[in-house]
Design goal:
About 25% of the residues are buried. The longest helix has 27 residues. This protein has two domains: about 90 residues, RNA polymerase sigma factor, region 2, helix turn helix motif (Rna Polymerase Sigma Factor, Chain: A); about 80 residues, Orthogonal Bundle (Arc Repressor Mutant, subunit A). About 75% of the residues lie in helices and about 0% in strands. The chain has nine helices and no strands. It is elongated, with a radius of gyration of 17 Å. The protein is an all-alpha fold and about 170 residues long. One of its GO terms (biological process) is DNA-templated transcription initiation. Keywords: DNA-binding, Sigma factor, Transcription, Transcription regulation. Belongs to the sigma-70 factor family. ECF subfamily. This is SigE family RNA polymerase sigma factor.
């Protein structure tokens, strides 16, 4: 395949998936600026291995897995703690009218440990099955189940404390 054709194919893929990758990255890290950095690193990794990526059965799954790996790798290195821009986070305007609920959920999600957060985002935002989540995180299905359970329990506790009302519907 010619380089121009390869680049055009890659550009088309990134153009169609960048917004989705950014939303998933934001749910993982809770910071729009950091989400942009995660997506940029993910796109760079995808580009360098595009020949292999384009042959994958599920390119979206490959991209999602790469994004999660970039996020977890960054969490282990810890540099984000020194470069956090939380004071200058610009929230995007939401269409949902219950902004307080959304902000409470974002804060509770940000309080989860990285693996639990990644598991909850993949399972309940990306709507992956236990098996698909296990594949994306390179772990066992039992680990996904326990991380999901612990993550949801923690979210329930945090949201109940914030609202002083038991949280229904968070299953």
């Amino acid at each position: 395949m010619a380089k121009a054709e390869r680049d055009a194919e890659f550009t088309e893929f990134v153009s169609s998936r960048a917004a989705w990758l950014r939303k998933v990255a934001f749910l993982l890290c809770g910071d729009w600026h950091r989400a942009d950095d995660l997506v940029q690193e993910t796109i760079t990794r995808l580009y360098t291995s595009w020949g292999r990526v384009r042959r994958a059965d599920n390119i979206d799954g490959y991209a999602r897995r790469t994004l999660v790996n970039v996020f977890l790798s960054e969490q282990r290195r810890g540099w984000h703690r020194f470069t956090s821009s939380r004071e200058t986070v610009e929230e995007e305007v939401a269409v949902d009218l219950d902004l307080a609920r959304d902000l409470d959920l974002r804060h509770a999600l940000a309080a989860l440990p990285a693996r639990q957060r990644a598991t909850v985002v993949l399972r309940y935002y990306c709507d992956l099955s236990v098996e698909q989540t296990a594949e994306a995180l390179e772990c066992s299905t039992g680990n996904v189940k326990s991380q999901s359970s612990r993550g949801l329990d923690t979210l329930r506790q945090l949201l109940t404390i914030r609202s002083n009302v038991p949280v229904k519907g968070l299953t």
